[in-house]
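Q: Sequence in, structure out?
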Amino acid sequence: MSDVKPRTRIQERNRGSILEAALDVFSQYGFRGATLDMIAESAGLSKPNLLYYFTSKEAIYIELLETLLDTWLDPLRELDPEGKPIDEIMGYVRRKMDMSRDYPRESRLFANEILQGAPRIQQDLTGDLRKLVDEKSKVIRKWHEQGKIADVDPYHLIFSIWALTQHYADFDVQVRAVLGDKDPFPGASRHLEQIFTKLLTP
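A: Exactly. Output:
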């Protein structure tokens, strides 16, 4: 029987406030630039109170990354081997665009970690992520062998989808500086649908 007591509503609320504040701070300043003082201030808590919930800045960062990576894999997990190939791949593109629109801070947090060499999630990248990409790449390759899509390298197709969708989160400031007040996502979604449909059509 576990001796761990369930968290109270206040404890859950405070943990949530800390993680939400940390997401803001880490996505803006990166791991090195962020401090516990900045996170505590953003969460509306004292630093000692923050340290009651998390023992270190790294503990907060790792919890955010682990939650994020699992969320990040969900759109690819939904790729159905029994579905219509082009529809399935375009559905994946749309889900990734939705994530860039709805979770820009999370995307930038992940990008910052990768740019640092992924020291805290390297095992996850070579484990769960690689396994999933291998699995879905086999599906895409089989679709080509069946004549249902054009001949594409499945790994580089997935990389291209990541690059072209996550750009709108990671480089949001640049995109909006060029487009002004115009919402980039409707036009971006149409453009990517055109690119990948043409690429994949046999």
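The chain has a mean pLDDT of 93.
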